[in-house]
Amino acid sequence: MGRRSVHTADQLREVIIDASRAIIAEQGLQALSAREIARRIEYSPGTLYNIFQNLDDIILTIEGQMLDRLSDVLTTLPVVTDPGQRVRQLAHAYLKFSHDNPKLWNLLFEHHLPAGQDVPAWYRAKLNGLMGQVEAAVAPSLENASEDTIRRSARVLWAGVHGITSLSTADKLSNVTSDTAGQLIDDLVGLYLAGLAATHSA
């Protein structure tokens, strides 16, 4: 039996999120359940659904907070005017963020909504805001290029950075190379931006 409520709805929302985040950070997404959350916060499982629609709603809320934290990290980096160095700066900050929060960071890519259900508009806006920072950094290498070209180029590059980051965070990079993730990121960014500039110029 859960104990009698001693929290307001807003307070209970935060208690649920804090407990859920702790479970994921300690044991991974597979350990998260309504029963385990309720056990930690000493409420009945049904109480969770007075605050959140379902478990996916809780997870998306945690993911949104992670995206906000990553955005804060990227937006507070020191100002760098060289385009190539700016992209490297963003990529290395992304790599560090993933290593500082491995299980929570992996949540962004392990969690899948039911088939046919798309992420909420607020969630998509957070993702687009993050990618907007990458697009702004890539744009100087594509002077006078269309917005679509800049958007696609930035996302192709970031997909490559994410791949390196994923291997590194999962401790699988050594299966591919003896180089560090940072070295690979520097190579990827340098070669890709040079290729973009040369192709666009031509």
Concise overview:
The protein has 202 residues and is mostly helical. The protein has helices spanning 9-27, 34-41, 45-51, 55-75, 83-100, 102-110, 121-138, 147-169, 181-201.
Q: Helical element count?
A: 9
What is the N-to-C order of secondary-structure elements (H for helix, E for strand)?
A: HHHHHHHHH
Major sheet details: none
**Average pLDDT score:** 91
Q: What's the overall geometry?
A: elongated
Helix-and-strand structural type: mainly alpha
Low-confidence stretches: none
State the end-to-end CA separation.
Answer: 70 Å
Percentage of residues in DSSP E strands = under 5%
Count of strand segments: 0
* Helix percent band: over 70%
Radius of gyration: 20 Å
Describe the structure.
The protein is mainly alpha-helical and 202 residues long. The chain is built from nine helices and no strands. α1 crosses α6 (102-110), α4 (55-75) packs parallel to α7 (121-138) and α5 (83-100) runs antiparallel to α9 (181-201).
